[in-house]
Design brief:
Largest sheet: 2 strands, antiparallel
Strand order of the largest sheet: 1-2
Strand content: 5-15%
Order of helices and strands: EEH
Radius of gyration: 13 Å
Distance between the termini: 39 Å
Number of strands: 2
Shape: globular
Helix content: under 10%
């Protein structure tokens, strides 16, 4: 695995590049978003529990709202 991981232990975790939230960069996100159960990541619209910039589910797996 190449690249540098800079993590503030206890507060942040590294998101691997394959999520591509921002292309070709590694990101750290607050620990509190990791502790939300995966089933709640799929909530769409205004009631979403995780802000868009931290969303962990790939776009192809998002629920359709139509």
């Amino acid at each position: 695995m190449s690249g540098v991981y800079r993590v503030i232990f206890g507060r942040y975790r590294v998101i691997p590049g394959w999520y591509r939230m921002i292309p070709d960069r590694y990101r750290v996100i607050p620990d509190r978003y990791h502790s939300i159960p995966r089933k709640y990541h799929l909530i769409c619209g205004k009631n979403r529990m995780i802000p868009d910039r931290y969303h962990l589910i790939r776009r192809e797996y998002h629920l359709k709202t139509w």
